[in-house]
Specification:
10 strands; five-stranded antiparallel sheet; Cyclic Phosphodiesterase, Chain: A; alpha+beta
Length: 210
């Protein structure tokens, strides 16, 4: 396990608490109730044993980013009437749980696997043709790894190494259900926890979209 670094944890907590604006193509936001129920059970389990150790997102905000855009402190201005969602070059795909890990920045990431073609740069290039009509100066990029951010350590949790070891073990045993993704959402967000978002377009993975 990477040892959480206080400077990085504090920087992340500051980033969480302030406005950050960006656009991403995501699965979830929200996920099905089966995923949200498992997450809420995990949250209750951790909070009952280690109160005030973790800052949690809202369960409705859980998501896995497929294509990521750079966040900024400045608001992002988009076309008044977003164009229709492009036809995506693949159908529904499984999102498979691959274990949770604690990062050096204090983030608790639940990693998921999805088919390799989802992470290809060619897919990002196709979406960026669409982004030109939405926001000409904004670009999305593919990711090598995908995860659901489950929470973030508080700075006080860093003072107790035994607690960190317990949390590592607990999150290592955590599991969220595998699900089939049949739509992706192009989301304009105003904080990195996705508690304040606006869905620009929902892209259904059957060649249709809204």
């Amino acid at each position: 396990m990477p040892i959480p670094c206080r400077d990085r944890v504090d920087a992340r907590l500051a980033k969480i608490s302030g406005p950050r604006h960006g656009i991403s193509l995501v699965a979830g936001n929200p996920f099905p109730e089966t995923v949200r129920k498992a997450f809420k059970a995990l949250r209750v389990s951790v909070d009952s044993a280690y109160p005030n150790a973790v800052v949690w997102p809202e369960d409705r905000s859980l998501h896995a980013t497929i294509l990521r855009g750079k966040s900024s402190r400045r608001p992002i201005h988009i076309a008044a009437s977003p164009p229709d969602c492009p036809k995506l070059p693949f159908g529904p795909f499984p999102l498979v749980w691959n274990g949770a890990r604690l990062g050096a920045d204090g983030a608790i990431r639940g990693y998921v696997r999805c088919p390799s073609h989802i992470a290809r740069d060619s897919f990002a290039a196709e979406m960026n043709h669409y982004m030109v009509r939405l926001q000409p100066d904004y670009h999305l990029r593919a990711q090598d790894h995908h995860w659901i951010t489950l929470g973030s350590l508080t700075s006080t949790a860093l003072d107790d190494r035994a607690l960190l070891g317990d949390l590592e073990e607990l999150f290592g045993r955590a599991s969220l259900p595998n699900i089939l993704i049949d739509s992706l959402s192009l989301v304009l967000y105003h904080d990195i926890t996705f508690n304040d978002t606006h869905t620009l377009k929902e892209c259904l993975l059957n060649g249709l979209g809204t």
